[in-house]
Amino acid sequence: MSNRVGVVTGGSRGIGLQIARVLVMRGCSMGVTYMHNESAAKEAEDQLLQLATNGQHIRMLKGDAGDPRAVREHAALIRDELGCVGILVNNAGIMPQQNFENVTTQMWDDTLRVNLSSAFYWSREVVPGMKQEQYGRIINISSIAARGGGVVGPHYAASKAGMLGLTRYAARELGPFGITVNAIAPAFIEDAGIFLDWSEEEKDTLRKKIIVNELGSTGDVARAFEYLLDTPFVTGVTLDVNGGAFMI
Ligand SMILES: NC(=O)c1ccc[n+]([C@@H]2O[C@H](COP(=O)([O-])OP(=O)(O)OC[C@H]3O[C@@H](n4cnc5c(N)ncnc54)[C@H](OP(=O)(O)O)[C@@H]3O)[C@@H](O)[C@H]2O)c1
């Protein structure tokens, strides 16, 4: 991986940061995007630089992954400064919880844009370089909500289900160019997102409902990511990382 370039959208915290750490430990230079939280981004940059023992470059990029112009600018910057992107992790996501009839048009549009359109915008930018190199890994971070519906709301479930269709279409078209496209469907990741704010009591109640009676970690998702990264013969799949909860 030592001369590869990776991009993780929404990589300043949670699952995205853990995946970025893995890529840096494997020798990649990285573009890492984020949206609002400057202090988390600074902390992430420091952590990644400490891991970059082969002189890799770490480029933190602030902006909306759901805005095609911002994505085009970021992608051009990475291409110019670091080179062709070989590994793209479409991870940026928002999850504003709301029940069906109270989802506003704005909330619907924003969630689809950030969670789903961003994956298409970023993929569209990096695929030409991947084709040229005859190597690419695109990994889309979906959710258990894509199949079971989940509890966040229809906007979130639809955005994450859309990612699975995008994954399968892209896998089919891009496979002959050495590019694999896969998805990971996590749930209940204790050290990321909303679960960081939960009390131990709330987490214990949730654990009892999960088949393996455990919550997951960003490390569990990162291990699934590494499998997909290392395996050229697997494409178009969705890997469930949710303690068996997809069966419930
Ligand atoms: N945690 C779970 O249990 C779980 C379960 C299923 C699926 N997922 C999915 O996994 C992915 C990561 O989740 P997480 O829990 O690790 O999230 P998180 O801790 O909330 O982190 C979200 C990341 O996305 C960035 N972001 C948000 N909006 C963005 C935008 N418009 N453009 C670019 N970056 C943006 C955030 O940057 P700022 O901090 O600067 O805003 C942050 O870096 C999401 O797609 C989520 O839906 C998570």
What's the topology here?
Elements: E1 5-8, H1 14-25, E2 29-34, H2 38-51, E3 58-62, H3 68-81, E4 87-90, H4 105-133, E5 136-141, H5 145-148, H6 154-174, E6 179-186, H7 200-209, H8 218-230, E7 238-241
Parallel strand pairs: 1-2, 1-4, 2-3, 4-5, 5-6, 6-7
Helix pairs in contact: 1-2, 1-8, 3-4, 4-6
Bound molecules: NADP nicotinamide-adenine-dinucleotide phosphate (NAP).
NADP nicotinamide-adenine-dinucleotide phosphate binds at residues 9-10, 12-16, 33-37, 40, 64-66, 91-95, 114, 141, 143, 186-189, 192-193, 195.
Structure description:
This protein has 248 residues and is of the alpha/beta class. It has helices at 14-25, 38-51, 68-81, 105-133, 145-148, 154-174, 200-209, 218-230, and strands spanning 5-8, 29-34, 58-62, 87-90, 136-141, 179-186, 238-241. Strands 3-2-1-4-5-6-7 form a 7-stranded parallel beta sheet, with helices on both faces. The structure holds NADP nicotinamide-adenine-dinucleotide phosphate (NAP). NADP nicotinamide-adenine-dinucleotide phosphate binds next to α1 and β2.
**What is the average per-residue confidence, as pLDDT, rounded to a whole number?**
97
Structural class, from secondary structure content?
alpha/beta
Q: In DSSP terms, counting alpha (H) and pi (I) runs of 4 or more, how many helices?
A: 8
By CATH reckoning, the class would read Alpha Beta
Taking pLDDT < 50 over at least 5 consecutive residues as the criterion, the unreliable ranges are none
The biggest beta sheet is recorded as: 7 strands, parallel
